[in-house]
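2024-03-11 09:14:02 INFO worker-7 job=invfold-0412 stage=load source=structure_tokens
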């Protein structure tokens, strides 16, 4: 949840604020493409989310005595950061103000929290909700994190990571197109 909230919030605040004050337009005067600028904003959100996730993970390991598989943890954490940051970027380019972006982002965040295995196991949900949960990126993050902290991790974490990379691509391309339209 730290990854979900920190990365989506960071992307939404930065892009909308910079658009509002005009610094994004000034940045585009440099010989940098719009997709590169957007990717930079997404990566900035990733760094912020990585710092938050590292603090929570280290605290959990020290206080709770957990022993994660570091390779699996990194393998699921990096694509998760990219997906949620690009989701934040996609939803923030739809609106003009920071408060609108934060309000809009609450809908997918809270839906994902309840349908993706954070509160209630996906396997115990009705079949229709199970199908719906597999469209949402948090399902794959939760599954990958469970595998990372499991005593007997499986190779499903690789599939979770690949799905998250695919979802990142699905989110970043429309965000780029919308930002092109917005900057014209």
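2024-03-11 09:14:09 INFO worker-7 stage=emit residues=184
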């Amino acid at each position: 949840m730290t990854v979900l909230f920190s990365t989506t919030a960071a992307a939404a605040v930065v892009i909308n604020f910079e658009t509002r004050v005009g610094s994004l337009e000034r940045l585009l005067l440099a010989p940098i493409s719009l997709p590169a600028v957007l990717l930079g904003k997404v990566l900035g959100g990733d760094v912020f989310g990585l710092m938050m996730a590292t603090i929570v993970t280290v605290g959990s390991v020290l206080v709770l005595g957990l022993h994660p598989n570091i390779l699996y943890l990194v393998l699921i954490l990096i694509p998760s950061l990219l997906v949620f940051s690009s989701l934040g970027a996609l939803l923030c380019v739809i609106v003009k103000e920071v408060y609108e972006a934060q309000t809009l982002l609450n809908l997918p965040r809270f839906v994902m929290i309840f349908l993706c295995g954070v509160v209630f196991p996906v396997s115990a949900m009705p079949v229709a909700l199970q199908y719906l949960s597999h469209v949402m990126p948090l399902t794959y993050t939760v599954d990958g994190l469970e595998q990372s902290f499991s005593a007997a991790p499986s190779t499903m974490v690789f599939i979770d990571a690949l799905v998250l990379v695919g979802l990142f691509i699905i989110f970043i391309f429309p965000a780029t197109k919308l930002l092109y339209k917005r900057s014209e």
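2024-03-11 09:14:09 INFO worker-7 stage=report msg="The mean pLDDT is 88."
2024-03-11 09:14:10 INFO worker-7 job finished
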